[in-house]
Amino acid sequence: MRGSRHTLQNQSASGGNEGLEHVAVLLDRVRLAWLLNRFPPRLVWSAYVFVNGFLTIALLALLAVLTNSPFVFPSLGPTAYLLFIAPLAENSSPRNTILGHAIGLICGYAAFTLTGAATLPFGAHPGVYWPRIIAAALSLSATGAFMVLFRASHPPAGATTLIVSLGIISQPKELVIIEAAVFILVAQAFVINRLAGLAYPIWKIHETSQLRSA
User: Fold this and answer.
1) Cα dihedral sign for 146, 150, 153, 157?
2) Cα 181 from Cα 107, distance rounded (Å)
3) Are 190 and 105 within 8 A, CB to CB?
4) Is 70 exceeded by the pLDDT of residue 34?
5) Which of 69, 138, 183, 214 could form a disulfide with 111 if both were Cys (CB 3.0 to 4.6 A apart)?
6) What is the SS3 assignment for 72-104?
C-alpha cells in the first residue's frame, strides 16, 4: 500500500490531481488496496469516479421513481462530477452547491413568471416564443450575477436556472424537490469523500483546508 500511495503522490505532483491519493486511502479502508498494484492508478481513479457517480445518481433516480417526483434533473450530473473529481474546490463545497442551485431555481422561476413565459406549457409554441427567450437570458444572467454577489459560484446552477426558466420544470413544489435532491447529493458526497480521507467540509471550504490539501 505504501508503494502504491507513493506512486499516486508522484502522479498527483506531476498531473496536479490530488484526488489520486485519496482514492488510495479509501481503497485501503475497504481492503481493496491491491487494485493499485494491478492496474494503472489513473484507471483506478476513473473507476472510483464512475462507481460514485453511478451510485449517487442511481439512488436519486430510485427515489424519483418511488415518489414520482423530479429528484433527478440534468444539472445534477455536472454537480455530481464536481463533488467527486474536485471535492476540495470551492465550487464543490456544500455551501456553493446548495446556494448555487437555490439561486438558479429562484432566478429561473422569477424570470419564467415575470416575462410571461408561463402562459404556455413547454413545447406548446411551434415557433419563436420571445417571452421564453427573454426568460432564459434573464435567468442565466441573474443567476451568474447573484452567484458572484453572494460568492456562491457553482457552474451547474446555470443549467438549473434554464431548466426552470424554459418551463421544463416550473411548479413550485417541484423546485423544492430539486433543492432537496441537491441536499441529498451533497450528503452522499460528504460521506463518501470523508471515507476517502478527504477533509470535505460540512459547509464551506476554509483557507486552512485548502492549504492542507495542497
Assistant:
1) negative
2) 18
3) no
4) no
5) 138
6) CCCCHHHHHHHHHHCCCCHHHCHHHHHHHHHHH
Q: Which residues of 27-57 are buried (b: 16+ CB within 10 A; e: fewer)?
A: bbeeeebebbeeeebeebbeebeeebbeebb
Helices and strands (H, E) in the chain, number of each type: 10, 0
- The CA distance from 123 to 7, in Å, is 53
Whole-angstrom distance, CA of residue 24 vs CA of residue 36: 8
Quick check: 76 and 185 in contact, CB under 8 A?
yes
**Tell me: the pLDDT tens digits for 142-201?**
999 999 999 999 999 999 999 999 999 989 999 999 999 999 999 999 998 888 777 899
